[in-house]
Amino acid sequence: MSVTENLHLDRKLPEPSALLELIKPITWFPPMWAYLCGAVSSGVSPVGQWPWVILGILLAGPIVCGMSQAANDWCDRHVDAINEPGRPIPSGRVPGRWGLYVALIMSVLSLAVGSALGPWGFGATVLGVAAAWAYSAEPVRLKRSGWWGPGLVGLSYESLPWFTGAAVLAAGAPRAEVVIIAVLYGIGAHGIMTLNDFKALEGDRQTGVNSLPVTLGPERAARLACWIMALPQVAVIVLLVMWDRPIFALAIAASLAAQGAAMRVLMRDPKGKAPWYNATGVGLYVTGMMIAAFALRGMT
């Protein structure tokens, strides 16, 4: 497309509904939930702290996560033209370079809001914004790797907001136990992100994105994703037992057992059942996160 054509399309305003679809509200929940888990795990009473809790949740979800979705859709517009041509950018509902403009404006907004959460909140926001662009944009584009890409997203969606929520409420570095649990759940989220890659299998294969479903095939990728999700939770259970929190460990073990049943269903048809598992097993996964957060809260 020529420069003149781009300028013409830039003058055409996107549809408001298309902009909302671009920043994908359905994806906001995991980092918002993780931030809340961090706030709970800090052990600090929310009394008098609610403005920081609410601001942090909005930052983690609609602002930073929304920005990352806009950046990813802009950088993936050629892949989406193959996989999902009805999405806002390839369909033309977000015309010209508006996808890029939205991502850049929201990046600046993220840093501005993050600065209001103090040095820990701002530092975490810088990392989150940098991770979003490193995942999607050339020349780094970690999305090309089925190992680095999902790993970065898992840590960004779960570990980083958890750490941030705990640090902002505690007004300092979280306890070591909080950091360990946050990192373990972020590692486990690698498996969730791998299952999410199943929907883009054909476009990824054609455009050189080496996701695990592309490089390993659906069955092996799904089996590996299940192990990656399960083993960090086993580690969380063991740690909670060691930290004298057996009731919480038992509750997470029950959640993991239910996930195991869902995983068996997933393995019957990995490609077809991946969306079902992301709506079922992931709910059990994040429930375990909050259980762990309350266990940590009781240790203060």
Which range does the strand content fall in? under 5%
Secondary structure: helix percent? over 70%
Low-confidence stretches: 1-8
Average pLDDT across residues? 92
CA-CA gap between termini: 59 Å
Radius of gyration: 20 Å
Please state the structural category. mainly alpha
Give a short account of the largest sheet: none
Query: How many DSSP-defined strands?
Result: 0
The helix/strand series, from N terminus to C terminus, equals HHHHHHHHHHHHHHH
Describe this protein with a few key phrases.
single chain, disordered N terminus, mainly alpha, 0% strand, 300 residues
Could you explain the architecture of this structure?
With 300 residues, this protein is mainly α. It has helices at residues 3-10, 16-22, 29-41, 50-75, 77-83, 88-91, 98-115, 118-136, 148-170, 176-196, 201-207, 212-216, 218-242, 246-266, 270-297. The radius of gyration is 20 Å and the shape is globular. The termini are far apart.
